[in-house]
Amino acid sequence: MSGMEEAEEGVSIEEEERREKAHFMQMSAAMLSYPIALNARVDRAAVSFERLQPEHRSLLPGFSAKLDAICRAGKRNAEFLSSIVHVDPFGALADIISSGGLAAQPPTTGFDMDKVHTTIKQFVRDWSDEGAQEREHSYGRLLAAVERHAKGRAPAEIEVLVPGSGLGRLAWEFAKRGFRSEGNEWSVLMLLASHYVLNARQGVAYDTIHPFVHIFSNNRSVDGQLREVSIPDVDTHDLPVDGGGFSMAAGDFLECYGQEATWDAVVSCFFLDTARNILAYLERIFRILKPGGILVNLGPLLYHFDDNCAAPSIELCLDEIVSAMESIGFVVLEQEDGISSDYIADDRSMMRTAYSCTFFVAQKPVEPAHTPA
After folding, report:
1. Taking the C-alpha atoms of 71, 73, 79 and 82 in order, what is their torsion angle to the nearest 10 degrees?
2. 371: which DSSP letter?
3. Under 8 Å between Cβ of 142 and 183
4. pTM for this structure?
5. Rg of the chain's alpha carbons, rounded to an integer?
6. Which 3-state string (H, E, C) describes 20-79?
7. Which end of the chain has the lower number of beta carbons within 10 A, N or C?
8. Rounded CA gap, 204 and 113, in Å?
9. Cα→Cα distances 177→204, 240, 255, 260, Å
10. pLDDT in tens, the chain (373 residues)
11. Between helices 169-176 and 110-127, what is the axis angle to 10°?
12. 119 CB-near residues (< 8 Å, 6+ apart)
């Protein structure tokens, strides 16, 4: 099971596999449905324009041409997404074809299409020149922390796990620096997209996308909405031959990792708040760290299941988390709060969200704590 959902009590393995297969098909179909959704949005804008009074339409001589340009840019995005799906590492496309094609699949929801839009923007954050500053503010801090605590050890000797690795750039950066690095991800869209950029293609700037073309609000200019971004900014196959190696693992973090004392560092970037029970994450991280190993974290506490009544979750304040970590056995070596951090921000937009993040380094002691007699 790849962990698309936490296992339910009493659900058979066969049923879990059926659900997983259906979910891969659902997300692949959502990518392939991108042009349908964008064309519907453009049609709505065209209808609204035609309903304007003639004197108002005359004030917008370039509006129809803009909509035509949006359609052309959207077609390029659709081709890009189709390329990702056609690599088909998990067989989802073959399943869609064998079950009657895209037309036979359930309609893609707005929620799933929002995920597709986010995946496109995630390519900007992780694999473009435009995302370099955002990466430096977050990934750079995490990379520096692991290097700072390496204490003279060769990177190839240090095993780093990056759960919630998304499109894989942070895990790849550790491997680029010679560490033994593994990324872990459960999102189907992220798994499909990361496989494409990390494995299916080679070279630099081989794809062009228009990541903001489907966003119709808060645009400063038409050029800003239409602009293209080349990806990737590096050759993802360009890793040191004498490094520790690089891998990606698909599945739920708690299901994939349980072996005690396996990792020298667990690096979480905007990850801990994805848990239904953050304490389970912290206990598992403590277990899988080697004595002396460190948890390096940067992120907010935007709990993903906060408003989901069907999925019980516990939302803790930061001070509660730090106290719980110390009770679990962690020693907090560094902590800095109030770090402003963007996430897939558009620097040409009239709106942006900046998180006030916490950063900390917490260590699993070399020797277990002893309770006084």
Report:
1. -80
2. -
3. no
4. 0.94
5. 22
6. HHHHHHHHHHHHHCHHHHHHHHHHHHHHHHHCCCHHHHCCCCCHHHHHHHHHHHHHHHHH
7. C
8. 28
9. 19, 8, 28, 25
10. 333 334 455 678 888 889 999 999 999 999 999 999 999 999 999 999 999 999 999 999 999 999 999 999 999 999 999 999 999 999 999 999 999 999 999 999 999 999 999 999 999 999 999 999 999 999 999 999 999 999 899 999 999 999 999 999 999 999 999 999 999 999 999 999 999 999 999 999 999 999 999 999 999 999 999 999 999 999 999 999 999 999 999 999 999 999 999 999 999 999 999 999 999 999 999 999 999 999 999 999 999 999 888 878 999 999 999 999 999 999 999 999 999 999 999 999 999 999 999 999 999 999 876 544 4
11. 20
12. 31, 189, 190, 193
Pairing of strands 246-250, 180-185: parallel
Q: Cα–Cα distance between 132 and 25 in angstroms, integer? A: 33
Which has the closest alpha carbon to 361: 183, 135, 144? 144
Which segments of the chain does DSSP mark as H helices, in order? 13-32, 34-50, 54-57, 63-87, 92-98, 110-127, 132-148, 169-176, 188-195, 222-226, 253-256, 278-288, 318-328
User: Which one-letter DSSP state was computed for residue 312?
Assistant: -
